[in-house]
Amino acid sequence: MKSFKLHEGLAFPLDAINVDTDQILPARFLQKRRSDPNYATYLFHDLRFDKDGSEKIDFLLNDPIYKNATIIVGNSNFGGGSSREAAVFALEAFGIRSVIAPNFGDIFFNNCLKNGILPVVLPKTKTDQLRTLLHNNPENNLTIDLVKQTLSYAGDIFDHFNINPTAKHNLMMGLGQIGLTMKHSKVIDDFELEYRANIRAK
Amino acid sequence: MTPRTIVDKIWDDHEILVDPVSEESLLYVDNLFLTDSSSFHAFDQLEKEGFTVRRPKQIFGVPDHFASSMSRKVLDITDPDRAARIEDLEKYCKKWGINHFGLEDPRMGITHVVGPEQGITQPGKIVLCGDSHTSTHGGLGALAFGIGGQSGHVLATQCLWQKKLKQMRVTVAGKRQPLITAKDIVLSIVSTIGAGGAFGHTIEYAGETITSLSVEERLTVCNMTIEAGGRAGIIAPDQATFDYLNGREFAPKGMTWNKVLEYWKNLPTDPGAVFDTEIVLDAENIEPMVSWGNTAEETLPISGFIPDPALVEDADRRESLKRALDYMGLNPGMKMIDIEIDQVFIGSCTNGRLEDLRAAAQIVKGYKAAVPALITPGSNLVRATAEAEGLDQIFKDAGFKWGEAGCSMCVGMNGDVVGANKRCASTSNRNFVGRQGAGSRTHLLSPVMAAAAAITGRLTDVRELTKNMEFI
C-alpha cells in the first residue's frame, strides 16, 4: 500500500450530494482487472463521457484545469451505496490521493484507508467553503499534512481534521492489514478453539 | 447484568480483542461469501502478499453477478471478462478448498438468497461478503454486513477489524393492509429515516409487524438496510426462524441442533436494552410504495405526486432533486400513477425468493404483460420449486421472459440492462443513476406492484387493479 504523509496537489470540487459508488465506478466495469491500462478512464465514467465516448463539457473534471487533480472535495454522503472496492481502485488509477467530504459511506471510507487514499471528514460549512474557493481559484494547491492533521489552501492553514490513530499510523507507514493481524495469531487460535467448543459445534 | 441488544450479544461472543488505540474490535467471522464480481481482487491480494486461506470450509463462493439469465453454461457467456471472472472464482475456490456452488449446481443463486436457503446463515453468526446487500442475512438473526475490500483479510485470518457501530431500533407496529408487502414496509422505513439516516448504525427491526413477517419477508426488510446507510439489519430469531432453518443442508443436525437452539433462544435483545436511536412506525398507514428518484429515500406512496424542487429550502437538496427529476424525466406535480413504464424486472436479493414469485404470479395470472418483462428467480432452487408449482407457466403465458437465477437486471452486470432513458419498474434495491444500465430510469417497488405495472404498462396501484379479483 502506498504510504501517505504529506500531499500537495490540485483539487477538484464535486458539488453533488449522494455521489454513490455506482457513479464513481459504474457496475459494468467491475469485471475489469486493475491491470487494465484504461482503468483510470472508468472513474466517474458516465458523468465524464457521453455515449459516443466524447467528454461531457459540463462535468468539471473534463476542464483541463482539473485534469491533474489529485484531491476531490465532495459533499454529503460521498461513496455511499455498493461496497465495491474497485471504486477506490478507479480513484487510485486516476491518481487521487485524498477525498474530502462532510461524511462518507462507511464501507467506502474503510476501502479508502485500506488502499492508501486518505478520506478527510470536515464540517459541511468547511467543505462548502472550500469548494467555492476551488471553483473561483482552481489553480491553487491544497496541502494535506497527515502528520499534523492539517489541510492548507494556497499555503495557508484552512482547517484541522481528525483521524483514527491506528488508521493514521498504517497510512503513514503504508502497512497492509493482514500482516498486522497475523501478529495476533496465537490469540486468534485460542479464541477459535474455545469458540468452536462453546458456541458452535460445527 | 446490563441488558444487551442482540447485536451486543453477537459482538461479545465474537470479540477476540480490542485495539486500545483505534478502539476497533478484532471479530471472529463464521462465514464469508465470495461473489464473482469482487473476490478476484481478494485472491490477487492474498497471492501477492503470500498468505493462505485459514478456514476454507467456512467460505462459500457463488458466481451471481455475471451469471447469464439465458443459460447455465459458462461457454454461453460471450463477454470474455465476465466468463473469466466466473471461471476465476471456481479456480480459486478449487485451489484453496473453498465451498463453491457453480452455475449448474442446484444450490447456486444470488449469494444473499443462497446463504439463508442452504442454512449456512444462522442466528448469532457473523456473516460477511464483499457486497453491501449482505445485510439481508440479518433476517435470520445473524450479524451480517458488507465489507468491501476486506475479503482478503478475512480469507487469510477468518477475522475482521471493526469498530463497534451505533445501534438503531426501528419498531413497526400495527396490522398492514392487504397487498402491502415487506418491500413497502422497508421502502417506507428508508424514506422516513433517509438515505443517510442510519450511517454508522446497525438497525434492529422489531415490533409486531416485523415479528409477523415470514422469514423470507424479513430477509427483504434487512436487505435494504444499506439504502438508509446502515451497515447491518437484524431481526431477532424466533420459532419461525428455527422452523425455517430446520433440515436445511448446512443447518446443525441432531444433538448439535438442540444445543444451538438453546443458544439461539437467548439471542433476542433483553428488555431495557438501550439503543442510540429509536424510530417508531405505524404499518396500518403504509401504502404500496414506489421510488421516483435516485435514492431509495426518494420514494412515495403510489397515490403520491412528484415533488417540486421550488418548495425545497435546502440548496443542496433542491439541486439534488432537480438533478433527479431531470435524470428520471419527470415533472413536479405529476401523479405517480400517470408514469408510463417501458419494462419490468422481477428478481434480485431483495425480491427473488419463492414467496415473491408466488405473489407476483397471483397478480399476473390470466393477464398479458403490456411491456417487456423479465423475471429471474433468486436461486436455481427457487427456480426449480417455482417450476414444480407451475409459476413459470403463468409468467410465460403472460408474456414474461423466465430467466435463470442471478443478480441480472438489478445491477446489469450480466448484460441484462435497461436502455438509456428507458423506465423500468423493478423489484430490486437501488434506483441510483445508471444502476440498471447507463441512463436507465428505475422505479423500485414490490413484486405485486411490479406485476401490476407489467399488466397496465404504467405505475399502478395493485389494490385498484385487483379490486374485483377473488383471492384478495
Give a nutshell description of this structure.
Chain A is of the alpha/beta class. Chain A has eight helices and eight strands; from the N terminus they run E-E-H-H-E-H-E-H-E-H-E-E-E-H-H-H.
Question: Would you mind describing this structure in some detail?
Answer:
The complex is a heterodimer of chains A (202) and B (472). Chain A has 202 residues and is an alpha/beta fold. Chain A has one domain: Alpha-Beta Barrel (Aconitase, domain 4), CATH 3.20.19. Chain A is 34% helix and 15% strand. Chain A has 8 helices and 8 strands. Chain A has helices at 21-24, 45-48, 86-94, 106-114, 124-136, 165-173, 177-182, 185-198, and strands at 6-9, 11-13, 71-73, 98-101, 118-121, 142-145, 150-153, 156-160. In chain A, the strands form 2 sheets. Chain A has a 4-stranded antiparallel sheet, with no helix packed on it. Chain A has a 4-stranded parallel sheet with strand order 2-3-4-5. In chain A, strand 3, helix 3 (86-94) and strand 4 (98-101) form a beta-alpha-beta unit. Chain A is globular and about 60 Å long. The two termini of chain A are 36 Å apart. The relative contact order of chain A is 0.17. The model of chain A has no long low-confidence stretch (mean pLDDT 94). Chain B is of the alpha/beta class and 472 residues long. Chain B has 2 domains: 6-277, Aconitase, domain 3, CATH 3.30.499; 291-465, Aconitase, domain 3. Helix content of chain B is 33%, strand content 17%. Chain B is built from 17 helices and 19 strands. Chain B has helices at 6-14, 39-49, 80-96, 111-117, 151-157, 182-193, 208-211, 215-223, 239-245, 254-265, 315-328, 348-351, 354-364, 380-388, 391-397, 447-456, 462-465; strands spanning 15-18, 24-28, 31-35, 59-62, 99-100, 126-129, 143-146, 159-163, 166-173, 201-206, 232-234, 277-282, 289-291, 299-301, 343-346, 373-375, 401-402, 423-426, 441-444. In chain B, a hairpin with a 7-residue loop joins strand 13 and strand 14 (299-301). In chain B, helix 6 runs parallel beside helix 8 (215-223). The mean pLDDT of chain B is 96. At the A-B interface, helix 3, helix 4, helix 6, helix 7 and helix 8 of A face strand 2, helix 2, helix 3, helix 5 and strand 8 of B.
